[in-house]
């Protein structure tokens, strides 16, 4: 009997201990008690356009709704911009070992020679070690994947757009001007009629979210802006009209099957450079058109 009573008391003590441990894990603020909980990444950033201005890029947010927390992101699988040739295919004549020759070899050589700055190329339609090195540098500069030195369709498209961009269409304007060619999907920067940032690639509005041509002014800037409807951070945000602005791309820029919701998407290095140059009041000129 004494052993039974002792066992009963030990069992009662154990139950009290377990209930107490469970109670300690309850957070009275977790059900709206006001305060507590982790602060979302970038919460110090104040909305300046992407989540506060109505327009084609995003609707106006409800003023009583809290700013949503960003969701964990997982890397998107990017499309194979430059498909590799079959491993069983014979190497094209003139191709150096480890550097395949693409179907647009001569055209890419021509455009890279015109652009300059990527190394010596010989315009003869035959891959060489020097040609390969120049093409690789070009592909790395404009984030063309994969940078194997092969003159494939994406490399050809980007080189052609850059080499045929007419910077004079932006006009001879005083001060700093950000220029965007919607037709060629290129952008550059001028100061007092002189190019200070050479044409680079961009991506503007897809079908249903057309980026308008015209002259605008940067009126709001934020190092990192939260987009309410799309739940994504927009790095190096510079707003210029109707919820549209410059920002670093959040997807693979050369995916031709998609576009932006009206914004002017930039590669990381270009977004940083534009941010360094831009100010509230900076001029933005968009010419041409893109149907989507």
Write the layout of secondary structure elements.
Elements: H1 2-24, H2 105-115, H3 129-141, H4 153-163, E1 176-181, E2 186-191, E3 194-201, E4 214-217, E5 220-227, E6 232-241, E7 244-248, E8 264-266, H5 268-277, E9 283-287
Parallel strand pairs: 1-9, 7-8
Antiparallel strand pairs: 1-2, 2-3, 4-9, 5-6, 6-7
Helix pairs in contact: 2-4
Structure write-up:
There is one protein chain. The protein has 292 residues and is an alpha+beta fold. Among the domains are: 105-163; 167-287, L,D-transpeptidase catalytic domain-like (Beta Barrel), CATH 2.40.440. It is 23% helix and 19% strand. It has helices at residues 2-24, 105-115, 129-141, 153-163, 268-277; strands at residues 176-181, 186-191, 194-201, 214-217, 220-227, 232-241, 244-248, 264-266, 283-287. The protein has a 5-stranded mixed sheet with strand order 3-2-1-9-4, sandwiched between helices. A 4-stranded mixed sheet has the order 5-6-7-8. A hairpin with a 4-residue loop joins β5 and β6. The chain starts with a helix and ends in a 5-residue tail after the last strand. Mean pLDDT is 78; it is low at 10-49, 51-66, 70-78 and 86-90. The active site is at 247 (proton donor/acceptor), 263 (nucleophile). Residues 31-104 are annotated as: Disordered. Residues 1-21 form the signal peptide. This is Murein L,D-transpeptidase. InterPro entries: LD-transpeptidase, LD_TPept_cat_dom, Peptidoglycan-bd-like, PGBD-like_sf, PGBDSf, Transpep_catalytic_dom.
